[in-house]
Amino acid sequence: MTSTSIPYYWSSVDWPAFMADFPPPPHYAEHTAAMSDDALHALQETRFLARMTEAWQIPFYRDRWSAAGLEPGDVRGLDDLAAIPAFTSDDLRESIESAPPFGSHQAFALADPGLPLKLQTSGGTTGLPRPTLFDPVAWEVQAVQYARALWAQGARPHELLQITLTNSLANIAWCAHTAAFNWLGAISMTTGSGLVTSSLRQLELAREWGTTGWVAFGEYLKILAQTADEAGIDLRRDLATRFIHSYLGVDTAGHLRRLLEDTWGVPVYDNYGTHEVGLIGFECAAQDGMHMNEDTAVVQILDPQTDEVLGHGQTGNLVVTSLHRSVPPIIRYDLKDLIQTRARALCSCGIRTAKFSGFLGRSDEMVKFRANNVFPRAAQDVVMGDERTTGEFLCVVGVEGEGLGSREVMTVRVEQRVPGSDPGLQKDMENGIKAAFGTRVGVELVPAGTLAEFTGLGGEGKVKRLLDLRP
Ligand SMILES: [Zn+2]
To answer: What's phi and psi for 299, nearest 5 deg?
Structure first.
């Protein structure tokens, strides 16, 4: 008789050691986030070198690094990080194509029968989404990261937390739930998106059951506010909301945050993460940049053109090295997300970390247009800052004419709240978007609600702001 042993989750992790290594709140504030710069650097370096040793065993890294002339032992610490070639999501996709279905960067995990695994994916835009495996440590550390964020934003045990993200192939909703349930003692209320629980029902549940915290995308908070307005529900008077954990996208001038805070009457906190490395940045009550989860990730900023490492305060691509992930290791992953970093300092909330800015755009969404680099999301501030619009817009790039007479054209479609109501809006949008893009583009005012089919607003994924019709 053969026996099969089950890789039980509960016994797969040394939990007290895990908590000491990655302290959840409130211990985080007294440990990692109170360390001296030297002590933190030493901790990061130890973890980094352990991840390097693991990564050298994995074909994806071994082949790339050998091809770049590296040998095991060449990288002796974090100071040598820049010598390691960065990779992008394209490289992960190639890895998956060459060693289906999970790729040479993580197939090894399947060979360990003692390892419980969870599978999540990226939001795929074309073809199948990109699968990522999680072992229990990867799974729980992302929840600890998230619990630290929720705590800094005011969440406490038995908080009724309404999570308006769907537990699906995307891991953010799972992450919010696991954080609340496993590491915060909050009551996790997984209503899912508006496709799972209608927006009206979401509001009714919040009103009747007393939701105190929300987890929701900025775009969905606008839909909920609109629904409340139509149903005669007063968000400030009828709900018990204390704070909102959100993702604001490019909101450098703070228009979206102000709009949401005015509407909901509570603080709205921005956060940043990806499914591979978890929630690496979160705002605290100070709302002054995002705290970095520094014991779980090392962040570098690279010049998008030259890949040169940039200093604090300069805008570039975020390149992240995970300090906790072994399945799969993530070493120098160029996310193509533009941000700025700030040196480690004591924050008014009481913790000491480096910080980074909110999300400033995606360098791979950048459109080369008449010798200018245009970031479609840069229009967000202009459009959302004007109450005559619904805040929704879509940047459309195409080609007009044929042969030698053809030329690239860019038009930003902007939803006008009341069609034809204000002839001055057209001019104001043209001027505002010209300033944001650094080049003049066309503006087309369209009726409210007509862009959702292109932007994906109200759906499950991230809202799209670029429609590229060029051949
Ligand atoms: Zn703070």
So the answer is: -110, 135
- Ligand 1 centre to CA of 245 (Å) is 15
Residues with CB under 5 A from ligand 1 (ion): 284, 286, 347, 349
Distance 403 CA to ligand 1 centre (A): 56
Cα of 465 from ligand 1 centre, angstroms: 31
Residue 445 lies in a domain: yes
Cα of 142 from ligand 1 centre, angstroms: 19
376 falls within a domain: yes
Centre of ligand 1 from the C-alpha of residue 283, in Å: 7
Structural domain containing residue 410: 366-468
The answer to whether residue 339 is domain-embedded is no
Domains: count for the chain: 1
What's the CATH code of the domain at 421?
A: 3.30.300.30
Residue by residue, pLDDT tens for the chain (471 residues) are: 556 899 999 999 999 999 999 999 999 999 999 999 999 999 999 999 999 999 999 999 999 999 999 999 999 999 999 999 999 999 999 999 999 999 999 999 999 999 999 999 976 555 688 899 999 999 999 999 999 999 999 999 999 999 999 999 989 999 999 999 999 999 999 999 999 999 999 999 999 999 999 999 988 999 999 999 999 999 999 999 999 999 998 888 888 899 999 999 999 999 999 989 999 999 999 999 999 999 999 999 999 888 999 999 999 999 999 999 999 999 999 999 999 999 999 999 999 999 999 888 887 777 777 666 788 888 888 998 899 999 999 999 888 887 767 777 899 999 999 988 888 999 999 999 988 887 889 999 999 999 988 887 766 556 788 888 877
Quick check: is 435 in a domain?
A: yes
- CA distances from residue 361 to 3, 29, 201, 315, 464 in whole angstroms, order as listed: 53, 30, 33, 10, 12
